[in-house]
Amino acid sequence: MTKLTSIQGHIAIVTGAGGGLSREYALLLASYGVKVVVNDYSGSLSGQRGTISHAQTVINEIKAKGGEAIADGHDISVQSEVQELMQDTLAAYRTIHILVNNAGTASKASSHDNVNV
């Protein structure tokens, strides 16, 4: 794989990165030398707060390959938590270069309740 040196050392936030495609994005970015904020809420539809255990698993994978990453458990469906995620990232790294906003969010309402025609 050819390395993209132009993004080496950049800072990325990847939402929903505890699993699925977001996990793969986080791992790929880290392989290019990007410092990754691995965001994963791991909550439930009932509103029960999750843990960052999925994010920590991804962090461990990144670090095992020589990369740098930190875990984040903010719920990106809540505006105030998005602001906290940004503030925490800026406190840790002073800047943000890349955002992969790929987390799935859901609500208790049925899907047809969320559609306006």
TrEMBL record:
A molecular-function term among this protein's GO annotations: oxidoreductase activity
Protein name as it appears in the record: Uncharacterized protein
Classification via Gene3D superfamilies: NAD(P)-binding Rossmann-like Domain (3.40.50.720)
Glycosyltransferase keyword on record: no
Family of this protein: Belongs to the short-chain dehydrogenases/reductases (SDR) family.
Keywords annotated in UniProt: Oxidoreductase
InterPro entries registered for this protein in UniProt: NAD(P)-bd_dom_sf, Peroxisomal_Beta-Oxidation, SDR_fam
Species name: Fusarium xylarioides
